[in-house]
Fold this protein.
Amino acid sequence: MSEETEGQADAELQAITSAKVDVEGRRIYVTQRLDGEVACWFIQVLAFMDDLEENGELEPIHVYVNSPGGDVAAFLAMYDAMRCTAAPIITHLMGEAASGGAMLFIVGDTRVASEHSALLLHEPQVEVEGRFTAGTVVREGVRSSWFAERLYHILEAHTHGHTQWRKLLADGQDHWFMGAEALRSHGLADITEVPDPEFKPGPEAE
């Protein structure tokens, strides 16, 4: 790699990384509300990491999620970027993830839930901005239905048919809260991380 190319890579790395990215460890930390700016940042980081090969092989990218969710369009942009990434993506649920944050965890190639993590899903919602008119109601209703269809399709695809989310909604259940112990049985996680039983917290644990 030439000095000029190395300089360009360093500049690109500096532009997209922050305390929420560990490039060497191939780790991304999503702890903020999802919006357009976060989606653009996430896409840039994924693309950068996807171009980094280790001995000719693409190492997994780890995405740690503790997010309240946010804009549906932002999540969908992040989801599309994940699907276009050649490297496998392992998502880790830390603490609580809700709404789009929960969806971000669910769509990983491998989903790892920590022992005390929790996940909150709810009926898809679309924020309305600006003047609230009859035209706005119709337009946002169409937009909401469009987003909802895609979210349910994604959810059902990544839970392998374990749970009929549309039926739950039809039955009036518009929120689903689950702790780590329930995630695997509902097809929402592949691995539940439990701390080493030999570990003893305290001054003697070095």
The chain has a mean pLDDT of 78. Residues 3-193 form a domain with the 2-enoyl-CoA Hydratase; Chain A, domain 1 fold (CATH 3.90.226.10). The two ends are 42 Å apart (CA to CA).
